[in-house]
Inverse folding.
């Protein structure tokens, strides 16, 4: 089916929304987040309600499964972080107890981030006619740094691995101040920076250019609330620095409260992700674009 490209939108060199005019007179609208999360693109016909074009059932099955894994992993991991911060702030529990809760929560974050990357790697691709979606073969990995959706999820995954180093090192005993800052604090800050970078890219993806507020877009809300959580994690990380002169943390209370509230944001984001999934292939909607 012949077609001509009408408009490509995105952030910098990345295309996140592509509008094409089809030979049938209809217009197809592809958006990267909708394709990888819902397995859809939009077909607009003059004088008709916009129709949702779905990928095949195999692709939708993959996306539903991965969506459930992502949402469950982030919700569970973030809930454990809330619990770990609460143990540290409100109880006299052994620090190793809170560290264990954090570490298990971090494993769930690892799983959720990798599942997000898999969802991107195996997302339906635009067909040759631009009016359909095609299902690629299953892959456990790909390297696609020129795709914003891949870059967003890859940076997030690396961030969770960096947090894993921080959480694992937190079990070490008898560290000097310099060692604690190097082995525990530095990976924490790097992980937070990667989370913030991933969140910024996610907001750019749903904004299709300069960052903007899109209150009617569920994907925007998920990206925004997670970015707020990442910012609170960074506040907590900065307050967790050990002063070399005094040997004490900058502010334990800010560390605990920043972690608790930041994790609570990720709980909300995780729950919202349950609703950002493929719907029924029989549906049409005027809110698809």
């Amino acid at each position: 089916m012949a077609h001509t490209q009408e408009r490509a939108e995105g952030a910098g060199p990345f295309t996140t929304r592509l509008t094409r005019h089809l030979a049938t007179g209809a217009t197809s609208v592809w958006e990267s987040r909708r394709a990888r999360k819902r397995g859809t693109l939009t077909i607009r016909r003059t004088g008709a309600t916009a129709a949702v074009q779905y990928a095949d059932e195999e692709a939708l099955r993959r996306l539903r499964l991965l969506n459930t894994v992502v949402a469950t992993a982030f919700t569970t991991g973030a809930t454990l972080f809330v619990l770990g911060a609460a143990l540290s702030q409100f109880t006299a529990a052994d620090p190793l107890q809170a560290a264990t809760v954090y570490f298990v929560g971090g494993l769930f974050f690892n799983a959720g981030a990798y599942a997000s990357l898999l969802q991107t790697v195996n997302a339906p691709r635009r067909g040759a006619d631009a009016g359909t979606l095609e299902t690629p073969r299953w892959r456990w990995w790909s390297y696609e740094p020129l795709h914003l959706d891949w870059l967003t999820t890859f940076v997030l995954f690396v961030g969770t691995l960096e947090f894993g180093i921080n959480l694992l090192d937190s079990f070490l005993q008898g560290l000097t101040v310099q060692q604690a800052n190097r082995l525990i604090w530095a990976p924490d800050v790097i992980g937070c920076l990667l989370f913030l970078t991933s969140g910024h890219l996610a907001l750019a993806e749903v904004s299709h250019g300069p960052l903007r507020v899109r209150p009617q877009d569920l994907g925007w809300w998920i990206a925004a609330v997670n970015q707020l959580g990442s910012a609170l994690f960074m506040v907590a990380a900065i307050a967790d620095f050990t002063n070399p002169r005094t040997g004490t943390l900058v502010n334990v209370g800010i560390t605990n409260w920043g972690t608790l509230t930041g994790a609570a944001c990720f709980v909300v984001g995780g729950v919202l992700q349950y609703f950002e999934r493929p719907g029924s292939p029989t549906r049409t909607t005027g809110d698809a674009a």
Summary: The chain has one domain: 57-273. The longest strand covers residues 3-9.
